[in-house]
């Protein structure tokens, strides 16, 4: 004997609801894995790069202040004329071991270019290097800030999708339980 049409349609709706719920759960799992494996780590790396550039920028600004002080003191009329050094300072020997040093009046400074390369340059060349380095670090920090903002928007979008799927799943469960009660 053939089932009534209403029984067939109810069974088909239950199957569709179950399939839709399974699809929603699968999509939630996929989006959650994507957040954990890809977006959050990339966002953390981007923030880390930005913070590193900002820390280097702060250190560079401190170096620039020191450079101006040394330039002012070394190139002043006091230095060298009375036989006294123009600047007394401390030099880091490494591992935070310092020694007192006296800088005679000079027109040059030694600049650490990186990778163990040092260059003796004039104060104006050193100032130019500092300015160029500052601009580069600001570009890096700004670029990573923009990238992080875009990534945060992506994370928010994925979170909204997950939330929407969860609401949809709960609504389907509620409707299914109401249908079962009838």
Automatic annotation (TrEMBL):
Residues 1-26 are annotated as: Disordered. It comes from the Eukaryota. Residues 12-26 have a biased composition (Basic and acidic residues). This is Protein UXT-like.
């Amino acid at each position: 004997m053939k089932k009534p049409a209403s029984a067939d349609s109810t069974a088909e709706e239950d199957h569709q609801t179950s399939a839709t719920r399974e699809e929603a759960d699968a999509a939630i799992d996929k989006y959650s894995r994507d957040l954990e494996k890809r977006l959050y780590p990339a966002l953390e790396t981007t923030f880390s790069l930005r913070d590193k550039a900002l820390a280097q920028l702060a250190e560079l600004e401190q170096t620039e202040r020191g450079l101006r002080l040394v330039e002012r003191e070394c190139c002043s009329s006091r230095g060298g004329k009375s036989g006294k050094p123009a600047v007394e300072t401390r030099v880091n020997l490494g591992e935070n071991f310092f020694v007192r040093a006296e800088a005679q009046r000079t027109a040059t400074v030694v600049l650490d270019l990186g990778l163990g390369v040092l260059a003796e340059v004039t104060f104006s060349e050193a100032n130019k290097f500092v300015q160029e380095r500052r601009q580069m670090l600001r570009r890096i920090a700004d670029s990573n800030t923009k990238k992080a903002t875009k990534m945060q928007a992506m994370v928010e979008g994925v979170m909204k999708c997950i939330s929407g799927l969860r609401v949809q799943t709960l609504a389907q469960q509620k409707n299914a339980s109401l249908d079962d009660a009838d």
